[in-house]
Amino acid sequence: MNALFNSALRQSTSIRKDLDQFADSAAPSPHLQAQLNASLTTFARTIDDYGKLAKQEPVQTKQEKAFERLKNFRNELDEYRASFKRIKSANEDVQTIEARTELLGRRPHHAATPENPYSLPNTSAAAAHSPFAPASYDPNAPYRPNAYSAGAQQGPEYDREGHVLREHTFFKHTSDQLWTSS
């Protein structure tokens, strides 16, 4: 019975140390989680074995002492399991937040999801906050954006259907000109 008590004491100390390491690590490894799970299971089995031997103890005072130790071990096991679950959930929350931030940080329009995922971000708004943008707008400046360029912002009537219609008209006129010139 002393051997089981000493084993349970060592396991308890080891689990406490592993839980502290698990709580202190910024990104806990799956290896440490598995080790803690295995240690908690082994500790529970050792406590069960110690409880069986405590029931068989013929000396009343030793049996009472063993039951008191058993109660303490079970309380420790419950605390360790609750602590492990709490730390694991906190680490998962941190990892989820980091992954979400990293994922949304890639997109230039992370504040609101656009209807069209292939749409270009608002270049005029981005240019207004650019460190290379002029401090004041000069309408006669030679470097102002070209309103007729492909990347220029169109008016509010510029939508998908309008684009398809203009594209179709362009192809039709081009095709007609090719057929008439040949």
Characterise the protein shown here.
Keywords: Coiled coil. Residues 63-90 form a coiled coil. This is Syntaxin N-terminal domain-containing protein. Residues 125-136 have a biased composition (Low complexity). Residues 125-155 are annotated as: Disordered. The chain has 182 residues and is mostly helical. The chain has a domain at 2-105: Methane Monooxygenase Hydroxylase, Chain G, domain 1, CATH 1.20.58. Helix content is 68%, strand content 0%. It has five helices and no strands. The chain has helices spanning 2-24, 30-56, 60-105, 123-128, 160-181. Helix 1 packs antiparallel against helix 2 (30-56). The longest helix has 46 residues, at 60-105.
Question: Helical element count?
Answer: 5
Based on Cα principal axes, name the global outline.
rod-shaped
The gyration radius over C-alpha positions equals: 35 Å
CATH architecture of the domain at 2-105: Up-down Bundle
Q: Mean pLDDT score, rounded?
A: 80
- Which residues sit in consecutive blocks of at least 5 with pLDDT less than 50? none
**Under CATH, the topology of the domain at 2-105 is which?**
Methane Monooxygenase Hydroxylase, Chain G, domain 1
The termini sit apart by 105 Å
Write the H/E string, N to C.
HHHHH
Output the structural class.
mainly alpha
Strand proportion, as a percent range, falls in under 5%
Assign a percent range to the helix content: 55-70%
Major β-sheet profile: none
- Count every beta strand, where a strand is a DSSP E run of 2 or more residues: 0
What top-tier CATH class of the domain at 2-105 fits best? Mainly Alpha
Protein name: Syntaxin N-terminal domain-containing protein
Keywords: Coiled coil
